[in-house]
Structure formats: structure tokens, C-alpha cells
């Protein structure tokens, strides 16, 4: 079965503000105030909680991996509490997935967000039922760009890897598709903007309304 697998953060939904808020909650708890900016640091947010903490500690000129490890559970707790305060699906995302499903494609999610948090978020956003699979950062011992989570997401969606593609927004997604041997389409409305062109994906997605045509061109 033809299958389309989606990244979550920065691809289906703009989660950056809530992610940054969770990191800043950690820094406020340390008495140093908000060290990250929701707009300027959005791209770092999509590289995960540890990346945000590292950036903040770098700006302080203090802290290392031990401090990052200590604050990471606190960041996850803060994020869970406010997981959908500001997060919204990108325009046309739900409609594009519905159109693909109606056209006979299986759909799934492969994300580097912890699985439980990803499940919570897509449920809160009201779109969990649109995806036949959801594989997170901790579903397997490895995460993207290792291809194993992608393979699992296709399998759980009932699809075939040889007739699948990945929709994402970062170099991690590009590398995942390369490792899996599948085409990749990268969105240009994420924090990296049209900078994703430099990653030479098989296609660029300027808006979700164009996605069904792009998918048809790539995997039939």
C-alpha cells in the first residue's frame, strides 16, 4: 500500500512556542530568567529539548551535559503541562492528510518527540484518527535519522517501504529518507524556510494544499 509518513514538529504543527516555553520554565527555575526567544530560537526547538537546554546553558557560559540531563525531565514535565497552549496545525495539514487517505494512501507519523507526548499532542489537536501509526523518539532504542523508526511507522500503518515517502522539515528528515532509501519532501513553511532547498529533497512543499499532487508525482 502506498504510504505517506509525516514528521510532527515543524511539519504538521508549529510547536516551537510551547517547546521554548518549557525550556524557559527550566531556566526560570534556576533563577536566570528566559534565555530563549520563541521566534529567533524556533529552529533549535525542533532539534529537541536537550538542544534547547544546551543553547541556554551556552548563553550563560555555564553548565554541561550533566546539567542538561538534570533539567531534561523538568523540561518534559513543563512541556506536557502546556503542550497545546500555542501549538497549532499548519494551515491545510488536516485537510491534506484526509485527501491522501481518501485517495487510498496509508498515513503515519515518525517523530523524534517522545511517543507519549506525541500521542497526547495529536490527540489534543484532534487528528490522531488520521494516522495509522505513530512512532516516537523512544518507541525503539534508536531514533531518526536511523531508518528503523521510519520502517516501523510504515509497517504499522499497513504500508510498503518501497512505495512510501517522508514529509519533513529538517536535515534529520532528509537523512532519514536517504538512509531508508525513500523520497523526501520538505516543507518550506517551517523555521528553516526555503533554506531546506540546500538539502536537495525530492520535492519542496510550499503549502499543504499542494501536497496530494506532490505525493502522486513521487510515488504514484
UniProtKB/TrEMBL annotation:
Its EC number is 3.1.3.18. Pathway: Organic acid metabolism; glycolate biosynthesis; glycolate from 2-phosphoglycolate: step 1/1. One of its GO terms (molecular function) is hydrolase activity. Gene3D superfamilies: HAD superfamily/HAD-like (3.40.50.1000), Putative phosphatase, domain 2 (1.10.150.240). Keywords: Hydrolase. It catalyses: 2-phosphoglycolate + H2O = glycolate + phosphate. InterPro entries: HAD-like_hydrolase_sf, HAD-like_sf, HAD-SF_hydro_IA, HAD_2, HAD_sf, PGP-like_dom2. The keyword Hydrolase applies. The keyword Glycoprotein does not apply. Belongs to the HAD-like hydrolase superfamily. CbbY/CbbZ/Gph/YieH family. NCBIfam families: HAD-SF-IA-v1. This is phosphoglycolate phosphatase.
